[in-house]
Amino acid sequence: MIQPVHEDLFAVVGNPVSHSLSPVMMNAAFRSLGIPAVYLALQIDSPVDDLKTLWETGFKGLSVTLPFKETVYRAAVSVDETAEAIGALNTLRRCDKGWEGINTDWIGATRAIGRFTRLHGKNALVIGAGGAARAVVYGLKREGARVTVSNRCIERGRSLSSSMRCDFISLPALAKSGNGRDFDIVVQCTSVGLMEEQSARLVPDSFFHPGMVVMETVYRPLWTGFLLQARQAGCTTVPGIDMLLHQGVAQLEWWLDRPVPASNGIDVMEKALKKALEDEQDIQKD
Ligand code: NAP
Q1: pTM for this predicted structure
Q2: Closest Cα to residue 276, out of 31, 9, 25, 39?
Q3: pLDDT per residue over 147-188, tens digit each?
Q4: Protein residue with least CA distance to atom 37, ligand 1
Q5: 3-state class of 100 per DSSP?
Q6: Ligand 1, residues at Cβ distance < 6 Å
Q7: All structural domains of the chain
Q8: Which of 57, 158, 187, 232 has CA atoms 20 to 30 A from the CA of 137?
Q9: Residue 176 annotated in active site
C-alpha cells in the first residue's frame, strides 16, 4: 500500500487531461493558503477501478472532467441533490466508505454571472443542451431565473427543457428571429468556438443588445467569436474562464470545508489561470 506522508493529495481525473488548467489553479491556491497539499492531473481509463485505487492511496479529493462526469456519478457512494438533478458530477471527496460527489459547474456559472447581475426574475437563454448546459440551466433556475433553452438538435434540446421545466426554441428559429431583446442573460454552452480564433456564428450581430449579460463557457480561446460579437454590441461579457475559476473555488471550499478568501485565495487562482492561458497563447504564436 502506498500512502502520502507529508502532503494531502488531490487530482483532476479525465481522459485526456493533459491540457487541464486545474492543477495550475489549485496548486497556486494551496501554496497561497499555506496548505500542505499537491494537486495532480491523472489520466484514467477505468473510472471505477481507478477511483478505488486513488481512494486506497489516500487521495482526499478529485475533480472529474470529460468523459467521466456521468460514469463517476454512478461510482460514488453518495451524491448530493445538485449532482442528482444534473445527472453528473465534477467533484469527489473522500469519505469513510469511498467517494461522495457533488456538481460545482452550476455554482461556477451562477457566481460568475452573479458578479454582474441579479439572477432572480431575469429572463435567461441557454444555448446548448449537453452537460455544461444542463448544469447552467439547473443553476439559473435554482437562482430564480426564467430559462429558455436553444439547441441545434431539437430532440436533445426538448429533452433538456422538459426535464428542467423550461421553454425551448430551436437554434435555427432563434438565429432567424435575429433579436435577443427578450433575454437579459445569455449563456453560450455549445462547443462552438473551442480552440478557434474565428468560429461559425450561432446568432447574428443583431441578436445582442446593450444591457444583456452574456457568458461564454468555452475558455480556449479566452475571446471566442460569440463573446466578441457580444462585446461589440455593448453587452456585459463574462468569459468562460470565470466559470472555470468559480467552479474550482467551490470545489476547494467543499474539500477544505471553509470559504476561500477573495484576497490571497480567489485572486491568486484567477491570476494563475489567466497567466497559464496567456502563456499557452504565446506558445501558439511562436
Ligand atoms: P457536449 O455535452 O458534447 O454538448 C455539446 C453541445 O454543443 C450540444 O448542445 C451540441 O448541439 C452543441 N454543438 C456542437 N457543435 C455545434 C455546432 N456546430 N452548432 C451548434 N451547436 C453545436 O459538451 P459539454 O460538456 O456540454 O461542453 C460544452 C462546452 O462547455 C465545451 O466547450 C466545454 O469546454 C465547456 N465547459 C466549460 C466549463 C467551464 O468551467 N468554463 C465547464 C464545463 C464545460 P447538438 O445537441 O445539436 O449536437
Answers
A1: 0.94
A2: 25
A3: 999 999 999 999 999 999 999 999 999 999 888 999 999 999
A4: 217
A5: strand
A6: 105, 108, 128-133, 151-153, 156, 171, 189-192, 194, 217-219, 240, 243-244, 247
A7: 8-103+242-285 (3.40.50.10860), 107-238 (3.40.50.720)
A8: 232
A9: no
